[in-house]
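Anyone up for a design puzzle?
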């Protein structure tokens, strides 16, 4: 029984007659584990791998990778911005945005539970000498604008210079309301602040609210989008902004060691993801709803909520460890930490059957006692 999300994949034995077998990792002939730890665990589909193999490439530090250039142009145009920069990770994309908006001794205002504050190793402070000012978030992920206003520092040598407001959409799966985005835009403009969006899951927000991604993005000065979450690319994020901001970000990317060369094969995966994996995010959302419904009927499981592709549940803390063992044996992976609150994430590699198997595995466990 495979125990990790990776162990069901193996290099197919060399088979001279099987051209694809020598080029691609093939699924082993075992039951696939269902991995709900995150939507980062998706693996490129055979069609995506084929698109990667065929991609024309060049040296991107010289600006000569045609596939990278095409991806950057496409995302900039789609989201309504002058320019875009393809980068390896969402963390680097956010870091470059913060370092392009802010200088040494500047400050950004950010949610206390936001990725750009809490989950990026303190990079803005470590590498950018930028001070974060965390603001407690509302349950919907928004930062109350009166609290944001109160945190803006006076212009005085005692204080860091407040330069930027950073939001996240979706946040823990929740879609920020469009009227909040409009209010945040007006607020930032009035107060002379830049406005950055960590839109790692921007397309989930767009699909869930039935508006084009650019309708969300247009309120911001810069937006970072992950191609490697629910969109299913193996690697890559894109930062969009003005040409001047993206020029700065490109310089900081080089400084951070992120200037890459024939990255077109990765950009091709991103192009493929944008062509084929955006509308289908709706399937992830409906599967999360199905999963939430199925789990909510189980005594021992407390459903806290489900938002886009995420389901949040509580289970009794003293049963967490046994639950983990039981689920692994059933071929289901979830993140089990110290908290009884669990986050289950649906994505490209979880189908209807998988959702049913997860519900059965939970039922089996909680029926035992
Ligand atoms: C995953 C994620 C990131 C960072 O992306 P990496 O590619 O893992 O560095 C940033 N923000 C949010 C909200 C994310 O979920």
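Challenge accepted. My sequence:
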């Amino acid at each position: 029984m495979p125990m990790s999300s990776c162990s069901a994949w193996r290099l197919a034995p060399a088979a001279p007659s099987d051209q694809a077998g020598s080029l691609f990792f093939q699924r082993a002939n075992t039951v696939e584990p269902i991995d709900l730890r995150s939507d980062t665990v998706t693996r490129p589909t055979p069609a995506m791998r084929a698109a990667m193999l065929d991609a024309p490439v060049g040296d991107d530090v010289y600006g000569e990778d045609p596939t990278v250039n095409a991806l950057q142009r496409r995302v900039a145009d789609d989201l309504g911005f002058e320019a875009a920069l393809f980068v390896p990770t969402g963390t680097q994309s956010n870091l470059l945005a913060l370092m392009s908006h802010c200088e040494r001794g500047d400050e950004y205002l950010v949610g206390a539970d936001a990725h750009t504050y809490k989950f990026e190793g303190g990079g803005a402070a470590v590498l950018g000498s930028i001070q974060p000012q965390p603001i407690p978030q509302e349950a919907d992920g928004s930062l109350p604008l009166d609290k944001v206003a109160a945190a803006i520092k006076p212009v005085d040598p005692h204080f860091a210079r407040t330069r930027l407001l950073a939001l996240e959409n979706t946040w823990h799966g929740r879609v920020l309301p469009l009227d909040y985005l409009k209010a945040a835009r007006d607020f930032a403009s009035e107060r002379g602040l830049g406005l950055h969006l960590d839109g790692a899951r921007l397309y989930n927000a767009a699909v869930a609210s039935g508006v084009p991604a650019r309708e969300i993005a247009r309120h911001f000065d810069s937006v970072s989008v992950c191609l490697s979450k629910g969109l299913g690319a193996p690697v890559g994020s894109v930062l969009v902004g003005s040409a001047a901001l993206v020029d700065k970000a490109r310089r900081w990317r080089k400084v951070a060691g992120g200037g890459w060369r024939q990255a077109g094969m990765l950009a091709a995966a991103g192009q493929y993801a944008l062509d084929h994996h955006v509308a289908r995010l709706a399937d992830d959302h409906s599967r999360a709803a199905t999963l939430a419904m199925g789990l909510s009927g189980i005594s021992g499981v407390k459903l806290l909520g489900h938002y886009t592709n995420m389901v949040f549940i509580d289970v009794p803390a003293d049963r967490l460890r046994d639950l983990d063992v039981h689920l692994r044996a059933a071929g289901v992976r979830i993140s089990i930490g110290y908290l009884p609150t669990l986050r289950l994430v649906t994505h490209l590699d979880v189908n209807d059957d998988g959702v049913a198997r997860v519900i059965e595995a939970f039922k089996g466990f909680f029926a035992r006692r």
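A detail worth pointing out: Residues 12 and 290 are 34 Å apart (CA to CA).
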